[in-house]
Amino acid sequence: MDHREFYDKDIVSIRDLTREQIELILDLSEEMIPYARGEKKTHTLDGRILGNLFFEPSTRTRLSFESAAHRLGADVIDVSQMSMTSIAKGETLADTIRMVDTYCDVIVLRHPHEGAARLAAKFSENPVINAGDGAGSHPTQTLLDLFTMRREKGSLDGLNIVLVGDLKYGRTVHSLADALTMFGAKLTFVAPESLQMPADIMEHLKAKGCNPVQTDDLESTIADADVLYVTRIQRERFPDPAEYSKVAGTYRIDNAMLREARNDAIVMHPLPRIDEIAPEVDGTEHAKYFEQAFNGIPVRMALLCSILGGEI
User: How far apart are the C-alpha atoms of 9 and 56, rounded to whole Å?
Assistant: First the structure.
């Protein structure tokens, strides 16, 4: 098995990948690090064009895909100001995808509606990479999260992972929990009852042999955690502002809390953070969220290179 098996393939959900395929991408991501840092140069995707099609605001994902493409020698068409496009005139998603498809070699799509990436893949001749669809899936975030854990902990097998915060609307944790079950992780879900992991995802995880612990008590989970994966409470996903205000600021990681943690425990966050992690944590050995953000570049380079047939 090598990375060429991803040639011309869509990346819509982490569930579409096997453990072996995930490890293949992570191995290639390791090779991409010096290129991602600019220490080595490559033009393996010279002449290729990536279409960034973002229907929702994004900083890290959009910029890291742009950076990944440029580091590989590809060009980028950025379509992130949707009010300036034909979408504002009522064009359907299917027609927009068909249009963008004619201008580029791969489409990176972020959309507020779950299932949009799967639909886009149906209408696009070229490969589609899901950069987040509503509360659904965010497979490239999951891959960079796994890459970060593996680099920091040495292996993904059997880790004790605590997922904290908005587990109902947070698409990053939905994809991540799915993937971690492939590596025998012990999962603990910390959230207020109203934001706990959705029942259908719990059933899926249990069917795969994982039996996550659900609790609203963060402090009781700190001492045994290998990884604390913290997410923000997402105001924009709440139908009712009053419901948001009830749970905003429920959990906050600070140095006092981390005194209970193992010396080698790491704290991760998909960013942006609001107040879930105190700034004082940034200076500790536990903090890995900025390395995590950088890791999006080599991981997305590995994916683009594989999908578009580049060689390093």
Answer: 24
Coarse DSSP helix, strand, coil percentages of the chain, rounded to the nearest 5 percent: 45, 15, 40
What region, left, alpha or beta, does residue 180 occupy, with left being phi > 0 and alpha being psi -120 to 50 degrees? alpha
Tens of pLDDT along the chain (312 residues)? Answer: 677 899 999 999 999 999 999 999 999 999 999 999 999 999 999 999 999 999 888 888 999 999 999 999 999 999 876 544 555 555 788 999 999 999 999 999 999 888 999 999 999 999 999 999 987 789 999 999 999 999 999 999 999 999 999 898 888 899 999 999 999 999 999 998 888 999 999 999 999 999 999 999 999 999 999 999 999 876 665 566 666 565 666 788 999 999 999 999 999 999 888 889 999 999 999 999 999 999 999 999 999 999 999 998
| Domain count for the chain | 2
SS (H, E, C) 227-252: EEEECCCCHHHCCCHHHHHHHCCCCC
Same domain? 61 vs 126: yes
Token duo for residue 209:
């042999």
> Is residue 312, in this structure, part of any structural domain at all?
no
233 exposure class (CB count in 10 Å sphere: 0-12, 13-18, 19+): buried
Residue-range definition of the domain harbouring residue 49: 3-137+296-307
Task: Tell me the sheet residues that pair with 52.
Answer: 78, 108
Residue 17's CATH number: 3.40.50.1370
- In angstroms, the CA 150 to CA 158 distance is 11
Answer whether 0.90 is exceeded by the pTM: yes
Contact 32, 312 (CB under 8 A): yes
Q: 256: how many CB neighbours lie within 10 A of its CB?
A: 9
